[in-house]
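Worked problem 6 (solution included).
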Amino acid sequence: MSSERVKPDSSTFTVAIKACINTLDLKSGEEVWEYAKEFGYRDDIFVGSSVLNMYTKCGFVKCGRIVEAIDLYRWMQREGYEDMYAKDGKLVIASTIFRIMSYRNVVSWSSLISGYAKNGYAGKALELLTHMKSYSSEPNLVALVSTLLVCSQVKFSFLGREIHEYIIRRLELD
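Solution. The predicted structure is:
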């Protein structure tokens, strides 16, 4: 790309880092990360997520990158990376990051609801859905399907039917 004078974008670096992860090539992944920073993508949420994923698969301690791990963690706190932790089952970390976020959107709400649902915390998922609605944030399909999962886990068939009907009504409107 550089020989053709084409400037790489966020997607270029994200895909390149993912390729390094797939081949477990940490050295090349770190080189791509360095190039990304040189091109101004140090604070890009997609590139940062890919880098974090790369180091997670390698392990910060094994890589000798403790300081960078702390820096990325602080950056993640600012950028709202509770989704990664919720998907991985680290719900204490996810909920802590969620609580300190200055801005919560439908994705951050839904990520945590989904994490609770997938890890068997039905009460927490339902509680969070209620809080989400009280903050005037309309749940997306991820939050709603996760809540259906919760209803089946705890045998709340009436609530499950209500949510199912709500989903059908929303789909008809779209």
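Discussion: The chain has a mean pLDDT of 77.
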